[in-house]
Automatic annotation (TrEMBL):
Source organism, top-level taxon: Bacteria
InterPro entries in the record: ATP-NAD_kinase_N, ATP-NAD_kinase_PpnK-typ_C, NAD/diacylglycerol_kinase_sf
GO biological processes: NAD+ metabolic process
GO molecular function: NAD+ kinase activity
The entry's keywords: Kinase, Transferase
UniProt keyword annotation of Kinase present: yes
Listed name of the protein: ATP-NAD kinase
């Protein structure tokens, strides 16, 4: 017998839950917020909206289907299976957080409040969407592969730099061409989805002439952050596009780290002499329309 599909609800702890875990009581949490000019009522309201959305999404799962639930903090320990339908309840960033752990499973983004770019459906739509997951858009991901086999995927962007935000030193090459030794605040490699976020901010700030990719386009853009010249480091190669030709980075610092989509706790560590290669990932995120 084949197993029934499984719906996995993905969410993160609300601000109220984190405040109570930190301060112990609602009274102490309220005092903490009040000293910062905020009101507990708004935090409580947001918490209630997320809980209501989770309850509505859970109630919409067909009775004969299996179900699972995982918080953002536990994603790296959760085992997704091929027959899963992933329902993300929260903000756009939560879709990016879960994307790296998936392999073709359809993703439904549910917004507790106003819809976003990736979480675009109301909770009431879950019942219909879990049964009709064929209408999807494929979102390109960025992939980093280290020469020791470590691998990292991201839906928005991958950052490579010093863990303590000190100077990162490396040799950067594109498509097998001559490498340039650089010293900078790190490197960003982003997708079309990430073009509205961190990479988009860098692109606007420097007035770049690069054409940012569309979300489903198998093309990446990369930017070197705050590169500076010296007798041994250059600044002639600080942005570009990636399609087939990879971007390679040979580490010359004692240790650099790479992480994707803001998940610093799930990072790849690279030591002096190691090489990291960036390309558009072969697999995509299947986002249900």
């Amino acid at each position: 017998m084949s197993l029934a599909p499984r719906v996995v609800l993905v969410h993160r702890r609300t601000e109220l839950a984190e405040l109570l875990a930190r301060h112990g009581t609602r009274g102490q949490a309220e005092f903490f917020l009040r000293t910062r000019g905020r009101d507990l009522a708004e935090v409580t309201e947001a918490d209630a909206a997320v809980r209501a959305a989770l309850a509505a999404a859970s109630a919409a799962i067909p009775l004969d289907w299996r179900r699972g639930e995982v918080e953002r903090a536990d994603l790296d320990r959760f085992l997704f299976t091929p027959e899963d339908v992933v329902v993300v309840v929260g903000q756009d960033g939560l879709v990016a957080n879960v994307a790296k752990y998936l392999d073709g499973q359809p993703v439904i983004g549910i917004a507790p409040g106003a819809p976003g770019v990736l979480v675009r459906h109301p909770p009431a739509a879950v019942a219909d969407l879990v049964r009709s997951t064929g209408d999807v858009e494929h979102r390109t991901m960025a992939e980093l592969t280290a020469d020791d086999g470590q691998r990292l995927l991201a839906l928005n962007e991958i950052y490579l730099g010093h863990a303590g935000h000190q100077t990162a030193r490396y040799r950067l090459g594109v498509g097998g061409g001559p490498a340039e030794r650089q010293a900078s605040s790190g490197i960003l490699v982003g997708t079309g989805t990430g073009a509205t976020g961190w990479c988009g901010s860098v692109w606007r700030e420097r007035g770049s002439a690069l054409h940012l990719p569309a979300p489903g386009e198998a093309r990446l853009v990369w930017f070197v952050r705050e590169a500076w010249p010296s007798p041994t480091t250059g600044t002639t190669c600080t942005e570009g596009e990636l399609t087939r030709a990879p971007l390679t980075v040979e580490v010359e610092s004692d240790r650099l780290v790479a992480f994707g989509d803001g998940l610093e706790t799930d990072a790849v560590a690279l030591t002096r002499g190691q090489t990291a290669t960036f390309v558009p990932a072969a697999k995509t995120v299947r986002l249900v329309r």
